[in-house]
Amino acid sequence: MTSQYFDYRDADLVLRCSSSPTPLDFRVHKCILSAASPFFRDMFTLPQAPHNSDEGDELPIVEVSEGSSTMEMLLRYVYPVLNPTIDTLDDLTVVLEAAYKYDMVVAIETLRTLLLLPRFLEETPTRIYAIASRFELEEEAKVASRYTLKINVLDCPLSEDLKFISAYQYHRLLDLHRQRAKAAQELLHIPDTVKCMMCNGTHYGVFLPPKWWKDFEERAKEELRVRPTTEVIFSMSFLAQSAQTGCERCAMSVLEAHWFLTKLKKSMDELPSTI
């Protein structure tokens, strides 16, 4: 059986995917594969067994271990045709693995951009980090590590991709979370210029913060320990809950402390956010 996308009459090579339930042939051109892949360029210096097809062609056959869908997507990245649509990380990973195996630089560069699509980064940043680390894509790993700050990395679904990274690479991610959480928690200090008309003041020369701040500080530290970003703790719902635990005037105090909260958020956002 021959691929509908790669059935060129002037082909001088057959790539055969024998691992699929039904073996699939790709009738391709050595010149294109040689230009796209040093792996194939070197391979073509070796003698190949001829293939006697029903049509009487005698083309050399190269059997590949990849599945037919993987090989088809990979070839579409190196041939002058429309790129395939890759909708899942599973497909992206196997094609990227094949691209590295055959040293297809053009395909690798395109797949690297797909790895950083927002939908992948938002849904499964730890998988993106693991995939990038596996293939030593440092820039992609840094971007993914920043997105992992939004989740609890110790409570995310177990991914098969983690099998392919080292303990050092995983520890780098955990260390980023730990260091950033600690630094963000240390910034949680309120100046004595933030006041509540009813529940704070100075007692024996010691500044007493508003009641809403005590609640905010406690819950913010816990949230930052799990997810060291400002996304949750400066949300209206998070601040409103703290305001409700204070006195009757604490809600107004929170609003009047907007300048301080904005400055605090900016300081946290400027903390190191990548491995």
TrEMBL record:
<protein>
    <recommendedName>
        <fullName>BTB domain-containing protein</fullName>
    </recommendedName>
</protein>
<dbReference type="Pfam" id="PF00651">
    <property type="entry name" value="BTB"/>
</dbReference>
<feature type="domain" description="BTB">
    <location>
        <begin position="11"/>
        <end position="79"/>
    </location>
</feature>
<dbReference type="InterPro" id="IPR000210">
    <property type="entry name" value="BTB/POZ_dom"/>
</dbReference>
<dbReference type="InterPro" id="IPR011333">
    <property type="entry name" value="SKP1/BTB/POZ_sf"/>
</dbReference>
